[in-house]
Write a structure and sequence with these properties.
The protein has two domains: 33 residues, no CATH class; 239 residues, no CATH class. Helices cover 68% and strands 4% of the residues. The protein is built from ten helices and three strands, in the order βαββααααααααα. Strand 2 and strand 3 form a beta hairpin. Helix 7 runs antiparallel to helix 8 and helix 7 packs parallel to helix 9. The longest helix has 40 residues.
Length: 277
Amino acid sequence: MADIKASGITGYTKIYSKNYTVTMDDGTVNDHVHICAPYISDYFKEKFMNNAIKYIIIIINFVIRTACIFIISKVGCSTESTEMIYTTNVVFICTFFNTGILPMLCTANLEHQLPAWLVNSLNLKGDSSDFNQNWFTNIGDTIVGSMKFNIYFPVAMEVMWFTMRFVKRYRDKSGIESHPSKSKSLQQFVNVWSGPQFFIHYKYSSIMNITFITMMFGPGMPTLFLYAALSLLVMYLLENYMLYYVYKIPPAYDEKLNNHVLQKLAWAPEILLEFSY
């Protein structure tokens, strides 16, 4: 390629749509060549995918949480406390694996740490054999973005649930003063106008997931400590508001689940020491 003639180009849009006149080495002149279009298209596709993964991880966590709660509630346990503890553990393990472990395995190179048959079967021959610059640029940035998105995701979900409840209640109004509701029975009226049920198990699992992810990767990415503090603060304020003004009166839980979660959280500093070392 001997010559490219173009001038007065500013911004991605003009570069993308600009027609270039290209003179090849053999003297052939090609008009209307979009020489920058493939590069810019690939750049924005990669940027979109990198940012989308950060949000997809948290959304998948929500799907996993819902599925686990549904399955365990259908299977049932001997007591309510046992079911709460079991649900908390299962949801935490699944979401922790999806948020922290799975992104590492996507690019992990463990050929010198694990047996060859296991490495080959799981295809653990990625680009990162340690927490190097490449890992922090790709996987680390994804984890930080997911934790950042996790700050306002609960608020967004509550806004969505509130909108759904508002629409149902608005449709239930009849506009007749003597019969203000379209509900045919008292139970239908209660179902429409009462708040959602308060579940504490997946909130504990969220606290555990935020804590362990922060302790695992925080030494290398200190911003995680700030995002974890903001996530816990938002959760605290949101749940207090929901308990006072939105939720139904919660049942009287015993101390078993709380003590169980505190015992699990006691292992978080050890994770911090192991990964920081």
